């Protein structure tokens, strides 16, 4: 009888523990704002500083007001936008993810500054889920720290990828539209298009023949630049380094990224076009002697530079190649 009573008591205790955990979870989730972030204050800091069991604790320390020297943290505002875009995406796509996001503004609270011994802001740290038998604290427990700087404060993709790897979730984030990059590419493309239409196209007498030559080049170049190699080995088109920057060339002669096919093809096309232009420019009757000579010098200089650039790219593949200038 005593054994049954003890067993029943144990089951009741476990049931109470489960109910308490579920209730605590519901209370915590109710404190989140529309982006899934809990704001830390001096009043609730003592509750959260010991962590939340079974949840990743992601803490962002920021400063919304100027300091005593009158300095404003612009990067704090920039990264908070990035943080909120990623947290809202996680909230919508992975609502059951075991992660809680906290934001602490040192302008409104002092406890966290003394407890974490902060000397500067901003900081983004990720604490692994604490266990019930673990003595956990934000000030002493190990954490992952996201390296924040001016260059990546607005990079939503990089931060989203960083969190997705730690949390082991699949996250889809739409990148911010870069107006400066769009204007650069648009102006560059329009300049090339206008030059080709106004200057180059009128000089081409047999347009059908020229079109066939262009198609032949398009078919030929992928064949000699390693397209089949990347296809057979299922190599990704674009690879990135640890800083999330595109790697246009792989080291070594026995491997290449898919993007190398297009990069090398483009260099071949440009150099071949410059050679053809050098051959044909003296035959243009619309150019006088001085203009033709100047054009030849310009084309020759461009060809010299392109070949030098080609050799510098080749040295990435073969660092010991001696014939460069």
TrEMBL record:
<dbReference type="GO" id="GO:0015035">
    <property type="term" value="F:protein-disulfide reductase activity"/>
</dbReference>
<keyword id="KW-0472">Membrane</keyword>
<feature type="transmembrane region" description="Helical">
    <location>
        <begin position="257"/>
        <end position="280"/>
    </location>
</feature>
<dbReference type="Pfam" id="PF04756">
    <property type="entry name" value="OST3_OST6"/>
</dbReference>
<feature type="transmembrane region" description="Helical">
    <location>
        <begin position="292"/>
        <end position="311"/>
    </location>
</feature>
<dbReference type="GO" id="GO:0008250">
    <property type="term" value="C:oligosaccharyltransferase complex"/>
</dbReference>
<feature type="transmembrane region" description="Helical">
    <location>
        <begin position="208"/>
        <end position="227"/>
    </location>
</feature>
<dbReference type="InterPro" id="IPR021149">
    <property type="entry name" value="OligosaccharylTrfase_OST3/OST6"/>
</dbReference>
<keyword id="KW-1133">Transmembrane helix</keyword>
<dbReference type="GO" id="GO:0018279">
    <property type="term" value="P:protein N-linked glycosylation via asparagine"/>
</dbReference>
<keyword id="KW-0812">Transmembrane</keyword>
<protein>
    <recommendedName>
        <fullName>Dolichyl-diphosphooligosaccharide--protein glycosyltransferase subunit OST6</fullName>
    </recommendedName>
</protein>
<feature type="transmembrane region" description="Helical">
    <location>
        <begin position="182"/>
        <end position="201"/>
    </location>
</feature>
<keyword id="KW-0732">Signal</keyword>
<feature type="signal peptide">
    <location>
        <begin position="1"/>
        <end position="21"/>
    </location>
</feature>
């Amino acid at each position: 009888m005593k054994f049954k009573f003890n067993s029943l008591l144990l089951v009741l205790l476990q049931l109470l523990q489960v109910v308490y955990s579920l209730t605590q979870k519901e209370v915590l989730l109710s404190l989140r704002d529309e982006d899934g972030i809990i704001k830390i204050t001096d009043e609730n800091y003592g509750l959260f500083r010991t962590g939340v069991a079974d949840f990743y604790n992601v803490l962002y320390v920021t400063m919304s007001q100027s300091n005593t020297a009158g300095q404003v943290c612009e990067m704090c505002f920039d990264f908070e936008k990035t943080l909120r875009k990623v947290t809202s995406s996680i909230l919508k796509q992975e609502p059951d993810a075991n992660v809680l996001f906290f934001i602490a503004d040192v302008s409104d609270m002092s406890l966290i500054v003394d407890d974490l011994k902060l000397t500067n802001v901003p900081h983004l740290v990720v604490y692994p889920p604490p266990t019930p038998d673990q003595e956990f604290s934000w000030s002493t427990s190990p954490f992952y720290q996201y390296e924040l700087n001016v260059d990546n404060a607005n990079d939503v993709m990089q931060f989203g990828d960083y969190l997705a790897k730690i949390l082991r979730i699949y996250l889809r984030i739409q990148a911010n539209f870069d107006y400066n990059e769009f204007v650069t590419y648009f102006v560059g493309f329009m300049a090339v298009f206008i030059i080709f239409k106004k200057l180059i196209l009128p000089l081409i007498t047999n347009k059908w023949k020229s079109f066939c030559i262009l198609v032949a080049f398009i078919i030929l170049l992928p064949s000699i630049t390693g397209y089949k190699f990347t296809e057979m080995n299922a190599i990704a088109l674009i690879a990135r380094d640890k800083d999330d920057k595109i790697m246009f060339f792989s080291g070594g002669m026995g491997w290449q990224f898919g993007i190398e096919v297009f990069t090398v093809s483009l260099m071949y096309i440009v150099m071949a076009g410059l050679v053809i232009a050098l051959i044909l420019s003296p035959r243009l009757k619309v150019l006088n002697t001085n203009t033709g000579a100047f054009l030849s010098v310009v084309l020759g200089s461009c060809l010299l530079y392109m070949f030098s650039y080609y050799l510098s790219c080749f040295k990435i593949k073969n660092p010991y190649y001696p014939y460069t200038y």
